[in-house]
Amino acid sequence: MCADIPGERAPRLAPLPEAEWDGTLRAVAATTGPLNVFTTLGRHPRLFEKWIGFGTALLMKGLLGDRDRELAIMRTAHLRDCAYEWGHHRRLALAAGLSEAEIAALRLPLDDHGWSDDDLMVLTAADELDERSTLTDATWAALSARFGERELIELVMLIGHYHMVAFALNALRVQDEEGH
């Protein structure tokens, strides 16, 4: 379940039954399985088609390394209190080389773990965008020393995208596939 909000825990919109899937949703489900994030957002076919292309570009076709991408997504999932996003990206984070201890540390203040400078700048970017909706000049300078302009744009867009996804998952009360 996403976000511990008092009140009813049932999904606000049930996942779309398979008999009602369009070609885009069928193709996505054939690749990923019938994940509730997709079968719920698939209730708006035109929007889903555009969104899935953008999300796929960020997740699977981006310029950022897997570790940087998953650090940014996992920190955002934590900051937005989205258990669905956290749960689904946890395995991707492990595959990207994060350890169990690092994944646990993503829920802590950044100073409570010995992050490398590279990891810390990505996590700081996620925190600053969450808190301020922008980056400080110091963080921008640190990121600019490491990333080119395309990666900088992608990092900011990635973090913003996963904020949006967390908002949708939380507001729609999308349940994990086990119904939690």
Describe the structure in your own words.
By secondary structure, the protein is mainly alpha-helical. The protein has two domains: 18-60, no CATH class; 66-172, AhpD-like (Up-down Bundle). The protein has helices at residues 23-32, 36-41, 45-60, 66-79, 83-95, 100-105, 117-132, 137-146, 149-172. Helix 4 packs parallel to helix 7 and helix 4 packs parallel to helix 9 (149-172).
Provide the CATH architecture of the largest domain: Up-down Bundle
Structural class: mainly alpha
Order of helices and strands: HHHHHHHHH
Distance between the termini: 5 Å
Compute the number of structural domains: 2
Overall form: globular
Q: Do you know the CATH topology of the largest domain? A: AhpD-like
Quick structural gist:
By secondary structure, this protein is mainly α. It is built from nine helices and no strands. It folds into two domains: 18-60, no CATH class; 66-172, Up-down Bundle (AhpD-like), CATH 1.20.1290.10.
Write the layout of secondary structure elements.
Elements: H1 23-32, H2 36-41, H3 45-60, H4 66-79, H5 83-95, H6 100-105, H7 117-132, H8 137-146, H9 149-172
Index terms:
AhpD-like; mainly alpha; 4-carboxymuconolactone decarboxylase activity; 9 helices
